[in-house]
């Protein structure tokens, strides 16, 4: 697993850089706090205004794909901030209509609500906004006399609900802080509605024009006592699409060109660092920028060119870990709006306890993805220097060079990237180093003498020892003998050798290894994580075969554990060199890395390769307590939205396992269509069309972000004629039905007739796809079976929908046909 990020985090970050905005004239700025801290405190604790409580009838909110109406009830507005009304509390009769735009989003909505289109009445609502929503309701309002009573009843609830939107509103309202040359402001429109539905309970709707996907809805729901944030839908309405703008990742309006980080690491707990960031402003106008930084690392100061800047480091809020991670954010407020073309140097000083000792000489480096201030996954240059105690080994991203410790009794090391990279990390331990080579690439493995204290203990074995002098009355002795504890240091050489072999295979298939070296470092826990040139490997990956046997792991789990190192090595190409663009594309790098690891297994043991794919099929067909199949959690393109109260483990099963199957299908489809009569089985070969495509992807997107449609487009450039559906060189059918779908059809050949011909036989029949959508198109390999029970490939049939007629020619001697006997299509087996 590599860099699995909160799906909402890119949305929060893109709120800074989206070009979407709706013009709005600024009212007179009154009642505005004079400092950043005071403004933020006001935004997060705003209460209701007893002088602005009304009867409301027929007021509405309209956005593309969203309609909210307040039929009849009482409405109380919040107090003004900087001359603006930013919220309201409603109680009465209301209705909401939300129309998801496509079958993926309608399917997601239906999973959680039972409705493809959200139509729900509500009895109360809390709204937060930054535009003229309040003014648009004036014609629908009439005064009431019981304002003080209403506010007394609802004010405490409103104040508590105000907190979660404060940081987002600060991005806009910071423009009203004292500044030079402040003009009329245009804010991206924001609406956050918390509704008490009559059948669905409490749920939330968001409209944020600054987000990549402005409209989203969801609900906090618990399963087995664990709360989850269920995302019902999230999308960009068609009305906001710009036909003239490429769907490829847009050029960043603000980018970080380089990082210079000086850190002191003091085991077992403390990290203290100073980070310098060089920013380039392509599009100005912002007064506040958001950066990611762990909430456990407290900032002492932020400076621009030596001058102190205001900042707000957000505190944790309630909710699941998925939601809380959205609060690993720091808002930095500038004295005036930043300008296009401006170059900025920002300096952050911060410290915190993000390390913990998991075992002797083995540290857990917490907050690995947010240990320095950053936003997005945009490549930059890194210059890292660390000071740390003697007898410890520090390994980081980049090329190591000498450094001098400034603090007595400490040692130092410096690491610089050899080119722009998206992320940087480090690991620290009392390691033993082993080294291997893959051509000119040095692969170093770092393991400690032991494993973490929480590592499972191997069960003891009973040994019967015969007496030295057998005879009457003598008995054998029973000795309880626990196996020796695992030692990653003892196995470090085997880990380095395995990493080198993986690089050798991947270099043939995908092109040269993209970085100068590879360091494989032990990390406590059962998860692993990759960075450019650096991998954190779970202690499980350092186990010898005997140590795995001692733990009595399930055979399939042991097999998958053996693939972790290779999977993380593949991420050096897919995830570190070629980046994913959004949460909808993260499956690309996870599925490709996982399939790459399985390809090395196929070379060594094809039966085990088949066993893993079968295990993935079984996982996808498993059911939860409500008898829902895991495959129906959604398509791979929902990313971490797949994690929900219905299917807590769906992200791994679908992004990794279905994603692996999708790449296997693509590889076999391309090979079958191009190969003609040649062999369609055996280990991966570098000249297969699938690998030609991946090398093209690597060349075209090295150091760039890859989207799912972009990958499909590259495959289409190599698409053989038998895979052209409706006579078009297009894989829209695969994108729509398989990548953006969840089907696993059952295949059946019906009405098959074999007719002799002078040069062979003619075969006609019907292929049925059951348990699938009516528009699913599948490339199905058809084989003939001879009297001697040998099989011969006859061709591919593009099965369209429930039933498809076909006609194929076959050699003489074919007695019957079989569909996909080598199981290259993700189907539900009979």
Defining key terms:
830 residues; alpha+beta; Neutral Protease, domain 2; 9-stranded antiparallel sheet
Descriptive report:
With 830 residues, this protein is α+β, with helices and mostly antiparallel strands. It is built from 16 helices and 39 strands. It folds into 4 domains: 18-240, no CATH class; 254-401, tricorn interacting facor f3 domain (Immunoglobulin-like); 492-546 and 562-739, Neutral Protease Domain 2 (Neutral Protease, domain 2), CATH 1.10.390; 746-819. A 9-stranded antiparallel β-sheet has the order 5-1-2-3-4-6-7-8-9. Helix 10 crosses helix 11 (586-604). The longest helix is centred in the C-terminal third of the chain and has 26 residues, at 650-675. The protein is globular, with a radius of gyration of 30 Å. It starts with 7 loop residues before the first helix and ends in an 11-residue tail after the last strand.
The H-level CATH homologous superfamily of the largest domain, spelled out, is Neutral Protease Domain 2
Task: Tell me the overall shape.
Answer: globular
Main sheet specs = 9 strands, antiparallel
Please identify, by name, the CATH architecture of the largest domain: Orthogonal Bundle
Count of domains: 4
The overall average pLDDT, rounded, is 90
* Unreliable parts: 1-26, 246-250, 316-326
Might you state the CATH topology name of the largest domain?
Answer: Neutral Protease, domain 2
Number of separate helices? 16
